[in-house]
């Protein structure tokens, strides 16, 4: 019988997404069957299949409880190297895990998930209309329900100043604004003469439609040339991980003028999982030297 990784996923959109991608990578690397418990909660009203199509089995709360009891409880994400011989591993975490052991960057495993068609169509239509002829700087401002460290370190005024600086240096740049706060949107638009495009939103981030809008914004940020992100925000960090650290900055990092200029001069590319969406198959990578989890999984022949 194939070994199991049973994953309970909670918190917000990008907390859930990052953990899910790690679980996909871990289950493939260790040849485990992935079972996903994705609860809809008061502050998160979207089911997994409201967002993506996928090949994995979803379970409910009762099955999850049974598996937790059978396995002896949830395991801490930092102990997974010592759990490889356990037939059932149950995990409940909001943090990415084992990221240095996967044969590809864990964000690459987005190729295993396929956006539901209405969301993909919305992204494609918006990008074709708004991104077509300009270099695009994505602006990810997290404010409502953001961590206090985020709000303090990355206030709207920082974004306004950086946008105006970039606009003065690169007048043809257009900005894609992604924010979870209507008042912040109005403030930014009123404080710059730069060209700004924005996906229409209802700003109800806890309901399914609001979560779908946020997911569309995440994928659109991944199609920009450069991102200004909020410090200590899983949403901004996820967008930055997709695009690459040289094309990302937040209020606590030092701007790299050469990186900005280089990013804005490059043609925008659609991430490979959107160009050829798939929910199966291999990610073409060069395998690293066998260390850590990778070496252990081969040694145990799991």
Model description:
There is one protein chain. By secondary structure, the chain is of the alpha/beta class. The protein has two domains: 4-113 and 279-300, no CATH class; 116-275, 3-Layer(aba) Sandwich (Rossmann fold). The chain is built from eleven helices and eleven strands. The strands form three sheets. A five-stranded parallel beta sheet has the order 9-8-7-10-11, sandwiched between helices. Strand 1, helix 1 (13-29) and strand 2 form a beta-alpha-beta unit. Helix 3 (117-130) packs across helix 7 (208-221).
CATH T-level fold name of the largest domain: Rossmann fold
What value does the Rg take, in angstroms? 20 Å
Q: What's the tally of helices? A: 11
Mean pLDDT: 92
Helix content: 25-40%
What class would the helix/strand composition place it in?
Answer: alpha/beta
**CATH architecture annotation name of the largest domain:** 3-Layer(aba) Sandwich
Q: Identify the overall geometry.
A: elongated
What is the first-to-last residue Cα distance?
A: 11 Å
Task: Count every beta strand, where a strand is a DSSP E run of 2 or more residues.
Answer: 11
Number of domains: 2
Sheet bearing the most strands, described? 5 strands, parallel
Q: Percent of residues in beta strands?
A: 5-15%
Write the element-wise H/E pattern from the N-terminal end onward.
EHEEEHEEHEHHEHEHEHEHHH
What's the multimeric state? Answer: single chain
Task: Report the top-level CATH class of the largest domain.
Answer: Alpha Beta
